[in-house]
């Protein structure tokens, strides 16, 4: 049985990936400081409480468990916060990954799956966005992930690190079994916010921008179910077992949903119309972010099987209803 060390495995995407690895027969070990993750989300193996920026803690976990693969999710991921507190993003995300890469090299652990982001592309010059699209981040969060990608490439050239870098588009939905779900404090993700506006009388969802050049004037995003993302990580581990080098894949559906369409879907499926307000577009917000998913399909055999908007909303509603 192979072992995967999952940094940030108590968080939203990380915990869903832990479940997918466990179902695929892997031994799962979570490394997380619980600053933005949840102890109760660690269900498929031991939790090592530690900080990704602490070299001793990272090294001790690698030495103890000797993982075959590291799946690296530990990161801060609020775009707005990164603009006001860039220092914590470069320290936690970028420097923390440097610590991890150094300790992996010293421990002889040579395979990494990295949770990257479409935010590294910045404002798209073409859509759908493929892996060869220029990378020009527009916020410290995107830059911190872009810097990590470059570090991984350099460690591969210098030290033989093998890696798969997965650039997510909009992670969404929750575990259909209800064992884990999406939980952020504060909550900034659009689907939970729309659900709150539908199920709670004191909440209003603000649509940021209605003048985009899209089919209904609101921004289009590519929502991919978190369980589909999790499946991609298991497939990435298989890729690393079979092939050397660094491999990059977008994870999205190849189609987009407008904000108005999302609000309509939540209202229709929940049976309660969300309360909506309208505000100006946020600075730098692209009108359309949609992935070209062909490379992941061809090389990983991956397909977004649960990423229809109705399925995403159904699983999210099932998670949130008893908690609101």
UniProtKB/TrEMBL annotation:
This is UDP-glucose 4-epimerase. Its cofactor is NAD(+). The keyword Transmembrane does not apply. It comes from Aquamicrobium soli. Residues 4-252 form the NAD-dependent epimerase/dehydratase domain. SUPFAM superfamilies: NAD(P)-binding Rossmann-fold domains (SSF51735). Homodimer. Its EC number is 5.1.3.2. Coiled coil: none annotated. Belongs to the NAD(P)-dependent epimerase/dehydratase family. The gene is galE. InterPro entries: Epimerase_deHydtase, NAD(P)-bd_dom_sf, UDP_G4E. Signal peptide: none annotated. Keywords: Carbohydrate metabolism, Isomerase, NAD. It catalyses: UDP-alpha-D-glucose = UDP-alpha-D-galactose. The keyword Isomerase applies. One of its GO terms (molecular function) is UDP-glucose 4-epimerase activity. Pathway: Carbohydrate metabolism; galactose metabolism.
